[in-house]
Amino acid sequence: MISRVIEWCAHNRFLVFTGVLLLTLAGIWSMGHIPLDALPDISDVQVIIHTNWEGEPPNIIEDQVTYPIVTALLAAPRVKAVRAQTMFNDSYVFVVFEDGTDIYWARSRVVEYLQTIAGRLPANVHPAIGPDATGAGWVYEYVLVDHSHKQSLADLRSIQDWQLRYQLATVPGVAEVASIGGFVRQYQVQLDPNKLLAYGTPLSTVIDRVKSSTNEVGGRVLELSGTRYMIRGLGYLKSLDDLANVPVMAKNGTPVLIKDLGTVSFGPDLREGVAEWNGEGETVGGIVVMRYGLNALNVINGVKKKLVEIKGSLPPGVEIVSGYDRGGLISESINTLKHSLLEEAVIVSLVIIVFLFHFRSALIPILTLPIALAISFIPMYYLNVSSNIMSLGGLALAIGVLVDAAIVMVENGCRHLSERPVPASDRERVHILIDAAKQVGPALFFSLLIIVVSFLPVFLLEAQEGRMFRPLAWTKTLAVGFSSLLAITLVPILMVIFIRGKLRPESANPISKVTQALYLPVLRFCLKYRKTTLLLNLAFLLVTFPLMFRMGSQFMPPLFEGSSLYMPTALPGISITQASELLQKQDRILRSFPEVETVFGVVGRSDSATDNAPLDMYDTTVMLKPREKWRPRMTYEKLIREMDEKLQFPGLTNTWTMPVQ
Predict the structure, then answer these.
(1) Hey, is 394 helix, strand or coil?
(2) How many angstroms separate the first and last alpha carbons of the chain?
(3) What is the four-CA torsion angle of 303, 268, 214, 55, rounded to 10 degrees?
(4) Considering just the CA atoms, what is the radius of gyration of the chain in Å?
(5) Among the three residues 239, 268, 297, which one is the final residue of a domain in this structure?
(6) 89 φ, ψ to 5°?
(7) Three-state DSSP class for residue 250
C-alpha cells in the first residue's frame, strides 16, 4: 500500500504540491494564532464559590453556608472532588471537575446546584462563583505610586476600585481585576450608648432607618401650565450631612436625627490584605487575572496598552508601576526556544549537506523540515495546545527525527543512480528514483510510526503530570507523524525534481571515508569479541542503577524568569498591624540588594475568589535587574541564600519559588 502511495504521488505532483502548500499556509496561520504562555496551565478544571457573611465566626459560616454548598455539589455530574475553606467573614468552596470538562459547562452546573439550595442558606447570604480563571491566570500586577504624597491610601483605593478596575476589565481576555491594599472608604455611624438610652431608641431601629433612608421612589406625572412633570422622591444619601440628618424617630413632635445619637464620619472597612512597595510604605495594587485558556501575551499587551490610555486621567503625581509582568518571561522563553529551533535546523541542514555531498539532494530533507514543523501547528491549534516551553521543546526533540526518513530515501536514490555504469536517461532516472523510494519507503514509514507509538504512554498520564507533559508528547508525535506522511508523499516528488546530473559515489565523499575508517575497525572488533562486548555493556548498565537511585527528583526544573517569589508564613493569629510592619521590614531588606529592581509585597488576600490566602501568608514579588548589572560572580542561587540569611524573623518560615510556578 505504501509503495502504491509513493508511485501515485510521484505521478500526481500538482495535486501533492497544492495540498502541501495549503497545509503549510494553514500551519503558518495556526502558528500566529496559537495561545502563548511560558508553561502549560496545570491547574484543575475547577469552579470557585465565594460567600461573604460579614461579622460571622468560622464555625457558624461552616455549618450554615459551607456545609450545605459542599453537600449539594458533591452530587453534581463529573465532579471529582469538592474542597472547602472557612474563615472569619468568608467561605471558599472549590469544585474540581474531571479532566477534559468544559469550564463553562462546569460553571453552568454549579449555578444550577446553587439555585437548589438558595432556600437553605441564611437570608442575607448570597454565594457567588469566581472568575473563569485559575491561579495561573495572574499574569500582570501593578502598583499605584503617589509621588506627590497628596493622596491617602483611601484615595488610591478609590482610584483603583472605581476607575482602573472597570477600564482594565474591558481588555479582551481579562476575567477579573482584583484590588489589594489601601482602605475601602465607608460612611460610619458611631452611636453613643448613653444617648440611645436617653431617647429610648434601640440599635435595630437606627439600623433600619439608615437602610431605608437611602432610597428613591417614583410617582406618576403632573400636568401644570401645559408642561408635563415627573414626580419622584429624592432620597439617596450623597454626603455626611445627608446621613447625619436622617430622622430616626420623633420625640414630643421633634424629630431625633442620627447626629443627635452619635457622630458620622468616613472610616476604613475591615482589611484582609496589605500591599507594600519597595519598603517605602503601604500602597494600593491591582492583579489582572486572565481568562482560562487564552493567549497570555495578548492579554498582557492589551493591559499595558490600556494603562497607557488611562495614564492621562490619573491625578497629578500618581503613577502606575508594574509589580509583576509575565510577558517578559513568555517572550524571552519563546524567543529562546525559537532561536534554539533555528540553530538546530541550521546545524542539521549543514550536516546533511556535508554527508550527502550533493547540494540539490540535501535540499530535499532541508525543505521537508520546516514544512513538517509548520503543519504540526494545525492540530495544535484545534487541540488547544498552547505554544510554551513544553510544546516547543517537543518540536526541538523531534527535529533530528524529522529528516531521518528523507535522508535515507535520498541516499538510497543517489546510490542507485551513482552505481549505474552509464548515465541514465531522464525517464530511466525517474523510474530508478521511484523504485528506490518504494524500496525503503514502507520500512521508513513504519519505523517513524514506532517512534510515534513510543510516546503514547505519556498521554496516559493523569492530573498535573499529564497536563504538564502532554503538550510535549503532542508536538513530537504530530511532527514525527507528519514527517512520516511527507516521506511517502512529498519526498519522492522532490527526489525526481532535485536528484539529477552527475552524482559521486559514496566512496568519493571524504567525510564518509573518515567515518568509515574510524567505525569499521570498531565494528569488526565488536563482532569478533561478541561476548566481551555484551559483558561490557551489561557492566555499564549495572553501574548506572546505583547512580539512578541516588539522583534527586522534582516535578519540573527551576525556571529563571528574572524574578523571585518570597513566600514566608507567620504564626496563625497575627494582627494586620504586625503583619504590615513585618512586610515593610522584609521589603526594605530585599530592596537593599543591588541585584533587585523592585519589590512588591503582599500579605493576606486580595478581593478575588482566586485568592484565599490568610493574613499569616506573605507573597512578595522580587523583580531582578538584568544579569549584567549583578555583582561579579553572583549567581541566582547565591543571591537567594544571601537574602534568606538576612530575612530571618522569629516565627516566620521562609519559602522561595518563581512567580509562574
Answers:
(1) helix
(2) 49
(3) 100
(4) 35
(5) 268
(6) 80, -20
(7) strand
442 in a structural domain: no
Contact 199, 251 (CB under 8 A): yes
Total count of domains within the chain? 3
Residue pair 436/424 in contact by the 8 Å Cβ criterion: no
Strand 563-566 relative to strand 618-624: parallel, antiparallel, unpaired? antiparallel
Task: Kindly state whether residue 443 falls inside one of the protein's structural domains.
Answer: no
CATH number of the domain to which 194 belongs? 3.30.2090.10
Q: Which three cell numbers stand for residue 214?
A: 437611602
Q: Tens digits of per-residue pLDDT, 57-72?
A: 889 999 999 999 999 9
Place of cell 442620627: 258
Q: Is the pLDDT of residue 142 over 90?
A: yes
Q: What tens digit of pLDDT does each residue of 233-287 get?
A: 777 888 888 888 888 888 877 888 888 888 888 888 888 889 999 988 899 999 9
∠ CA 230-236-237, nearest 5°, is 150
CA distance 311 to 164: 10
* Beta pairing partners, 600: 277, 621
Q: What domain range is 263 assigned to?
A: 186-268
Question: What distance in Å separates the CA atoms of residue 148 and residue 143, rounded to the nearest whole number?
Answer: 15
Going by C-beta distance under 8 Å and a sequence separation of 6 or more, which residues neighbour residue 440?
408, 409, 412
Query: What's the whole-model pTM score?
Result: 0.81
Quick one: average pLDDT of 445-457?
81
- For residues 421 and 430, give the distance between their C-alpha atoms in angstroms, rounded to a whole number: 17
Per-residue pLDDT, averaged over 557-561, amounts to 66
582, 649 contact by CB (below 8 A): yes
Alpha helices in 383-403 (DSSP H): 389-402
Nearest to 479 by CA among 621, 374, 330, 341: 374
